[in-house]
Design goal:
three-stranded antiparallel β-sheet, binds iron/sulfur cluster
């Protein structure tokens, strides 16, 4: 494995080429990609990339490619419809009892498949301006149905521990806000940021904090990343995972199995496996829904329920998440005589080996 040791984050295509992370012949195209979408590869992520492997699953997530210049059918700048549900800047209120609070627009690394790729990165405001922040807090305060606030962005753990602690305290002081959930990639992209001060900032009186870790390949859960997560969990903060199903990264049963086992070993409950969103220039990284369902079937045959995420699709237009299977249950085509006498529908149910069984095992008929 031909690894790389860096002192600083790489942000320019010329740096990627100079360090052997992208071919020189691709430079002109990569400059065009970088002019549109942010690039950042932290030293921790660069150290995971095998420069001898043209299909390296870590490189595929973070090293830009010319394919990003091609917009596929249906792709757009707001693939999950945040704008339609944003009553004030920084807030997305899609479901009654929870809001997204988009505090910052920067990340430690920039994922090539990001569903908010048109909204994050240099050139955008780094954080919500102060007046907009006050309006957003005012909106949450004025809506007693909001039980959960999900801090997202960008990556909220790019804030300083001092600023994060202030925001956490302000949210927790609102009586109806009981849960503060933080979505982050920092524990894998830059685990050194998760020090004692950051962990202290995550704990707050008056609300329960949950942390959702975004990782897509088991190799991202390095020893430092695991230590960062252990520090959060040892402080009494539960963690869940979220991953994106990505072509060439984790679209095989072995890779998904290793990822889910790694989460559970780290005391992180697998939560979501997202189907790739229709973000512009990401079709080369997207699977089909049928492939995703087949992989979820394979996963159920390999690992326990602890290791099973929900495979979900964010419905374009802002209509929220839907679990997209696979389905293990289907009604039988009972004979009409049996159907007339039956008091309960009989189903076919598929076990983890793919074998079909009937439930109830015997048709229930009127006595
Ligand atoms: S960390 Fe999240 S918000 Fe940032 S680039 Fe990756 S997917 Fe997008």
């Amino acid at each position: 494995m031909n690894k790389i040791n860096l002192a600083t984050t790489l942000r320019e295509p010329t740096e990627l080429v100079a360090h052997g992370l992208a071919p020189a012949a691709a430079l002109a195209d990569l400059e065009k990609v970088a002019a549109r979408y942010a690039v950042a590869v932290t030293p921790d992520i660069a150290a995971l990339i095998d420069r001898n492997d043209p299909d390296d699953p870590i490189a595929r997530q973070f090293i830009p490619s010319a394919e990003e210049l091609l917009a596929g059918p249906g792709e757009n700048a707001d693939p999950i419809g945040d704008h339609a549900y944003s009553p004030v800047a920084g807030i997305v209120h899609r479901y009654p009892d929870r809001v997204l609070f988009k505090l910052v627009h920067v990340c430690a690394v920039y994922c090539r498949f990001c569903f908010r790729r048109e909204m994050v990165g240099p050139g955008k405001a780094n954080a919500l301006p102060h007046a907009a922040y006050q309006d957003a807090i005012g909106y949450i305060r004025a809506h007693p149905e909001i039980w959960e606030v999900i801090l997202t962005g960008g990556d909220p753990l790019m804030l300083s521990p001092r600023r994060l602690a202030e925001i956490m305290a302000e949210l927790a002081a609102i009586d109806h806000v009981r849960i503060i959930r933080i979505h982050t990639r920092v524990p894998v992209a830059d685990p050194a940021r998760i020090g004692a001060e950051m962990i202290a900032a995550l704990r707050v009186k008056g609300a329960t904090t949950w942390v959702a870790l975004h990782a897509n390949h088991a190799r991202e859960l390095t020893a430092p990343a695991r230590a960062a997560c252990a520090g959060i969990i040892d402080a009494g903060i539960p963690m869940v995972s979220q991953s994106v199903l990505l072509r060439g990264v984790n679209d095989n049963a072995s890779a998904l199995e290793a990822l889910m086992r790694a989460f559970v070993e780290c005391r992180i409950k697998p939560y979501y496996l997202h189907h790739g969103d229709l973000a512009s220039g990401t079709s080369h990284l997207r699977t089909t829904l049928a492939q995703g369902q087949e992989l979820m079937r394979a996963l159920r045959g390999r690992v326990s329920g602890l290791c099973q995420p929900d495979y979900v699709l964010d419905i374009p237009g802002g209509h929220g998440k839907a679990p997209v299977g696979p389905n293990y249950l289907s009604p039988t085509n009972t004979q009409s005589r049996e159907r007339e006498q039956s008091v309960e529908t009989r189903y076919r149910v598929v076990d983890y080996c793919g074998e079909v069984h009937l439930y109830p095992p015997i048709a229930m008929t009127d006595p």
